[in-house]
Write a structure and sequence with these properties.
- The protein starts with a strand and ends in a 13-residue tail after the last strand.
- The strands form 2 sheets. A 5-stranded parallel sheet has the order 1-3-4-6-7, with helices on one face. Strands 2-5 form a two-stranded antiparallel sheet.
- The protein has a single domain, classed as Alpha/Beta hydrolase fold, catalytic domain (Rossmann fold), CATH 3.40.50.
- Helix content is about 35%, strand content about 15%.
- It is an alpha/beta fold and about 170 residues long.
Length: about 170
């Protein structure tokens, strides 16, 4: 299995173990990593049976001011931005320990914020015979979940985790 991690993250695959299809012919990605996984699947000449997209970065419905605010926050304080970002990723659950990738940069953040999922990309993957699975947490406070769901439904099996956050974890509230 090939797995692409989220923005500024390392070894985050363990959060998705219960969903991952552990096969030599599976490509998967989380959030920003979903973009990279989709590009890999569309361009690869190797055998791929399944593309799994966990909480794919979906910001094409967000305003320009939202995107500029994100970039400005990162530019001002990358560590502060990542700390706030992780709180949002885990909300409404408590933040768990994750390994950060210090190579995460403003260009990557810009790429994920401005990336537009489109029918040409998805159709090229489907045309290759690759099964696409999308997993969305309905309590995700990072991406536009409804927009993502609507976009991916024609191309993929979309699994909604009713109380799942960006990491697809479900909090148990007392």
């Amino acid at each position: 299995m090939i797995f692409y991690s989220g923005f500024s993250l390392l070894n985050d695959q363990t959060f998705f173990d219960s969903y991952c299809e552990k096969s030599d012919y599976t490509v998967a990605g989380f959030s920003y990593g979903a973009i990279r996984a989709a590009h890999y699947a569309s361009q690869s000449t190797k055998r791929i049976d399944t593309l799994q997209l966990f909480s794919p970065a979906f910001f094409q419905t967000k305003s320009e001011s939202f995107k500029r605010l994100q970039l400005g926050g990162f530019s001002k304080s990358p560590q502060g931005y990542l700390d706030r970002f992780l709180v949002s990723c885990f909300a409404p659950c408590e933040v768990q320990e994750v390994e950060l990738d210090s190579s995460g940069n403003e260009d990557q953040l810009r790429e994920l914020l401005y990336f537009e999922w489109n029918s040409a990309l998805m159709s090229s993957i489907v045309f290759k015979g690759i099964r696409i699975e999308v997993y969305l947490g309905l309590e995700d406070r990072v991406i536009d979940v409804e927009g993502a769901k609507e976009f991916f439904l024609p191309y993929a099996t979309v699994t909604s985790i009713r109380t799942g956050n960006h990491f697809l974890q479900e909090c148990i509230n007392d």
